[in-house]
Amino acid sequence: MTKQCLRSLAAIVCLASAAGCSTTPKTEAKPSAETPTTQAGQKPVLKNLLRSELEGVDGTEVIVSHVTIPPNTSLPKHWHPGEEFAYVLEGSVTLWQEGKPDIKGVKGDALKVPLKQVHTAITGEEGVTLLVFRVHEHGQPERVAAD
Fold first, then answer.
1. Of the four listed, 29, 96, 101, 133, which is most buried by Cβ atoms within 10 Å?
2. pLDDT at 39
3. What pLDDT score does 42 carry?
4. Is the Cα dihedral 89, 45, 78, 42 positive or negative?
């Protein structure tokens, strides 16, 4: 199995764990100092639920977060030094990705952002609540602002 396959499989397992499908203890949540600010000056609520190294994949970690983005919000364009996966818990969101068609996510949908893909989340009247997890190289920043 390739390292990329292992990372994707580990991310799926972590999503199930964060949703309560496992009795594996969670590591202590650490708040992010990099919480993005929306273009309207509002801030989403981001709570890291899990940050843990992946067993069997040296130098790789997963971060699971609960994210609420207010209505009528567009996050600054950014990218992640790893893959990002999101499950829509409530509301809806439009995932904008540079060079790709927009993707609309509604309650129950799962979305994926590839490695280093410039993107943003845009909400409408209802806002959105997401379970987000990222798999990336240990020690890298959670997100990087796009130029």
1. 133
2. 46
3. 61
4. positive
Nearest to 81 by CA among 143, 12, 147: 143
Question: Nearest-CA neighbor of 143 among 53, 49, 77, 58?
Answer: 77
Strand, helix or coil at 57?
coil
Q: Distance of CA 60 to CAs 4, 25, 30, Å?
A: 11, 19, 17
The average pLDDT across 129-143 equals 93
61 vs 109: CA distance, rounded Å: 24
Count of domains for the chain: 1
Residue 50 burial (CB count, 10 A)? 20
Provide the CATH number for the domain around residue 121. Answer: 2.60.120.10
Alpha helix locations (H) across the chain?
Answer: 3-18
Convert the pLDDT of each residue in 55-113 to its tens digit: 999 999 999 999 999 999 999 999 999 999 999 999 999 999 999 999 999 999 999 99
Q: 67-85 b/e with 16+ CB inside 10 Å = b? A: bbbeeebebebbbbebbbb
Q: Which domain holds residue 18?
A: 3-145
What's the pLDDT score for residue 48? 93
Residues 6+ apart with CB under 8 A from 20: none
